[in-house]
Structure formats: structure tokens, C-alpha cells
């Protein structure tokens, strides 16, 4: 096919400048690796959100009350999982830790039996973030035990005797939050929104290389000669996209491989899903770059415009700040940015270990973005060559 032949021609020209190619491939890996290193180096938290899994085995209502009380703090975000999933997510680094509420939790509180209310915490041997949650659990248990003891004694003792008896009983009641720590030798690092946001943003900024390549083939007359051939605009534009798709995928492979092997980043269980998500996003980037090149006159303009487009769309998509913290109007706009869809897809694959089926909607939307940008760009390719 002509499109394959032309893409190889473009690829050979791209590979000639090895220094720029090498820099373009290694820079995202370097920056993303630094973000992973420093975001995982901090072991403690203060007022930042805590993401915790909870396994509620309680047959009564107190387990749900405890979950609601933890969520009401505003900084603890709970995800209900099974015991098996909780252990797997903690070991893989997809969750800070997991809380296990015992089966007889409610009945133990009703009987003021502190020993039977033991709540287990599964964690990696890193940090003390679980202390915040442990204190909340202890407070909940003690308040419920106190209420039970008051109810059991209020009708039989006068005030002074009741007070002394409660103090003695509470001192004798030792609330335990049992912690099970997994070996750090088997753990992989938890990635956060900062990591994904930086990675996605850098991929958007690589659009500059693609636009500059179009500027170069326009300047040396290659694009004009291509347009003068019987080949369609789709064939010519598709060859450009295909050649850069190869280089972009080398960049992604280096980044994923390095962070996986050296920094132990967990990329989920479905590399097929990752491949489809990244491929769809790369096609969006290249198609948008081809479209923007219509209005570019030189490399300076391309750098300014690409940086502006990538930064503005990144700001409202959730790459820099989580969408939940953005103003309402920006939360609505986020759905119209490709970065938001690739961010959601990567969260599903990396945080929840989902596969291709779970990210198909996001992939479909990304491909629609790519098709729209490419169609508009291909229709104006002759204009690009003549400008």
C-alpha cells in the first residue's frame, strides 16, 4: 500500500536526526520517573486525601455506620472490596491499605466486648498514613462501647458510682486495630494523579515535534510534491501519522518499561488495554497536530500554539488538578478534552486492574476525537502545502 511506503520514507527521514529523536524519547521518561520517585518518597500525609479499601464482613449495621463516619471526615475515600481484592490491591500498590471489619463487629459493640471488635488493617511496610484511620476507628469503637456501658448501668447506680465505674471499665477496655504488613520486597509503587497528569501532558507536548516535521517537509517542498501526486490527502496525511505513531510508541514503550522494571510502577494486568489506550491517544495527538499545522508559519509559532493548546486543555481535563476540585463549568468542559478520557482509562487499567472491556468507551471516544481531527486536517492538507 502507498500509505505504508510513504510512512517508511518519512520514518527514515525522522530517524536521521538521532540526537533530537533520542532526546524526545528520553525526556518524558526522565521527568515521569522523577515524579514517581519524589511522590513515593514521602511517607507521611497530613491533610491530603487518603484512599482506602474496606472489607465489611459485619452482619449488623455498625460496620456501615463506621464506614459512613470515616467518609464524613472529608479526607478518607473508601472503596468497598472483597477480602481477596483488598489483599491483591494492597500488595500491588493500588491501594494505601485495606480495613477489614470483622463479622461480629455490631454484636460485639452491643455487648461492649472490645476484644471482639478488633478491626484489621492490611498495609505495606511504608508510612504511617494508616494512623489517621486507626484513630478514627478507635474513637468510633470507644464511643459505642461507652454508650453501651451507660445504657447498661444508668438504672442501677447513682451518678458518682456510675462515673467511677465507667472510667474503670473504659481503662480496662483495650481497643485493638490489628495491622498486617506486607513485605516491601514484593510491592510495586502506587501511582497517583500527578504521575498520570505529567505523563499525559508530556505526550501532548510531543505534538511540537510532529508539527515541526510538517513545517520542515513544507519548507523543503516534499509536502507540495506529495500533494501533486495522484494520492489522496488521506493517504498522504495517514503516512505522516503512521511514521510518527512508530516513534511515539517507542517513547511510550521506553517510559512504561523503565518505570515498570526500575521504579516498580504497577501498570495493571492488561497490557493489551494499555496498548489500545496509548495508541488511541497518540492518534489524537498526531491528528490534532496535523490540523494545527494548517495555521502555523514556522517552528516558533508551532511551539507557542501547541504549548497553549496542551496547557489549557490539560488544566481543565484533570491532568494538573483532579477534576473534582475544579469549578463546575470546568468539570463539564473536561469531558470534551481527550486528556480526560485517557486519564480515566488509565485509572481503570492501573488502579482497578481492569481490562480492554472496561476501557472500550474511553477508547471509542478517543478514536472519535482522532477521526474528527484527521478528517478536518486531511481536507485542508493542500492549503497547508501552499501556505
TrEMBL record:
GO terms for molecular function: ABC-type transporter activity. The chain crosses the membrane at residues 20-39, 193-212, 233-258, 270-292, 304-323, 356-378. It comes from the Bacteria. Belongs to the ABC-2 integral membrane protein family. Residues 160-384 form the ABC transmembrane type-2 domain. It comes from Clostridium intestinale URNW. The keyword Transmembrane helix applies. This is ABC transmembrane type-2 domain-containing protein. Pfam families: ABC2_membrane_3 (PF12698). Keywords: Cell membrane, Membrane, Transmembrane, Transmembrane helix, Transport. It is a multi-pass membrane protein. InterPro entries: ABC-2_transporter_component, ABC2_TM, ABC2_TM_bact-type. The lineage of its organism: Bacteria, Bacillati, Bacillota, Clostridia, Eubacteriales. It is found in: Cell membrane. GO terms for cellular component: plasma membrane.
